[in-house]
Amino acid sequence: MGKAKSVSRLAKRTRAVVVAPEIVRQRRAADASDIANRSAEAKLAEAVGLARAIDLEIVGQMSVRISTPRPATLMGTGKVEEIRAAVEAAEATLVIVDHALTPIQQRNLEKALNAKVLDRTGLILEIFGARARTREGALQVELAHLNYQKSRLVRSWTHLERQRGGFGFLGGPGETQIEADRRLLQDRIAKIEGDLDQVRRTRDLHRQNRKKVPHPVVALVGYTNAGKSTLFNQLTAADVLAQDLLFATLDPTLRRIKLPHGTEVILSDTVGFISDLPTHLVAAFRATLEEVIEADVILHVRDVSHPDTEAQSADVAEVLRLLEVETGETGRMIEVWNKIDLLDPDHRAKLLDGEGSGRAIPVSALTGEGVDTLLDIVENRLVGDRPVYDVTLDPADGAGLAWLHRNAEVLSRGEAKEEGIPLTVRVSPRHQEQFLARFKLAG
C-alpha cells in the first residue's frame, strides 16, 4: 500500500525543463571580482539543483547563449523555438528560466512555449516557501513574494490562505485571474511588515537577555549547500536538516555550545547565500540574518571541492556587503574550507600544508576532521589574551556572584570552604578594573 502511494505521488510531480541563459555581453563586462563569471555548465547545474530542491521532475535541461537580451522574450526567436520543441518532446508543463524575467517576458514566453514559466526569483521564493518552518520565516517569505508580485498582479493570491508550502506556481489549482488591487496588496504588505517588526522586537529582547549573560555569538554563513548545517550538527550534536539540497536550511537555528577551554558561545546556523539574490529578498530576510550582523565571530563555510568555490565566495561577500556587515575587522571573519574529504590527495595535501598559515581552516564537517582545530581558533579569537583569575567569594555575596555571571565568564566553581567559595573566572579588559576593585583574589 505504501509503495502504491509513493508511485502515485511520483506520478504527480511536475515535469520541468530547466533553461540557463548565458548573457555573453554581461560576461565580458564583469568586473574584477568576477562574480558572474561562472562556467555555463556550473550555472546550469546550480539551476537544476534549485529545481530539484522542490522535488520537480527534471525532464530536460539546456544552456542558452544570448548576445543581446530581447525585451519581449529575453531570448531570440530561434532559441525560443528550440525550447518549445524540447518542452513538447518531454511533455513538460513548466519551464524554469535561470534569469530574472520582466512580467512581459514571462507572459510572452508562456504563450510561446505553451507552459508555465518561472524565473530565478520566483523559483527561489518557491523554495523558501517550502522550507519556512517558523512564523518569522513564513512572514519573510510572504513579504518577499508580495513585493515580487507587485508587477505580477495577474498571478494567484491563493497562497495567502495557506499555512505552509509553496505559492501556487507549481501543481495544485491553476492560476486565478484577479483584478489588480494595489491598495489591498499594499495593505497586506504593511500588515506583514508590522508583524515582522514585532518579531524583531522579540528577537531584540532575546538578544539583550543573552548579552546580560556574556555568551558571544558565532554565526555560520556561506553559499547554499556549502555544508553549514552539517558543520552545525557536528559542533552541537543537533538534528538540523542537513541534506545535499540547495536551501536545505531557511530558518535560523541557535544552540549554546562550550568551546575546548570552557568558553560558552551561541552558535547560529543561517540560510545559505546564492548568486544574483534579488535585493528585495535580501531586505526581507534581514531579520533572519541579524544574528550574522551582531555576531562576534563569523565562520564563512566554503565548499572547497566545488569547481566554482571562488565565485561562490565572492557572492557571499557581496550579500554581506548588501547587509552592511563589516567583515574587515581583525579576527571577526574566519574562513572554513569544508568538504576536504572530497578532494583529490594532491589538492588536499596542499590545503593541509597551509593549515597553520591562518588564512583558513580546512575541515570535513561530515567526518569531523579539523573541527577541533577550528574550535580552538574560534576560542582564541574570542578570548584572546583575557586574563584568568582565581577568586574567593563570600557565600553571602549574591550580588557579587550575579555580577560575575553578568560581566565575566565563570569557568569553574568549587565547593564552599570556610574562607569562601573558590571561583575561576575570565574577565574582559573593559570590566577588569571594576573586577579587581571589587573581588578578593585567591592567594
From TrEMBL:
List localization entries: Cytoplasm
Q: Which GO terms describe its cellular component?
A: cytoplasm
- Keyword Metal-binding included in the entry's annotation: yes
Q: What are the record keywords, sorted?
A: Cytoplasm, GTP-binding, Magnesium, Metal-binding, Nucleotide-binding
Q: Which SUPFAM superfamilies match?
A: P-loop containing nucleoside triphosphate hydrolases
Which NCBIfam families does the entry link to? GTP_HflX
Q: How does it assemble?
A: Monomer. Associates with the 50S ribosomal subunit.
Write the protein's name: GTPase HflX
Q: Which organism is it from?
A: Methylobrevis albus
Q: Which gene encodes it?
A: hflX
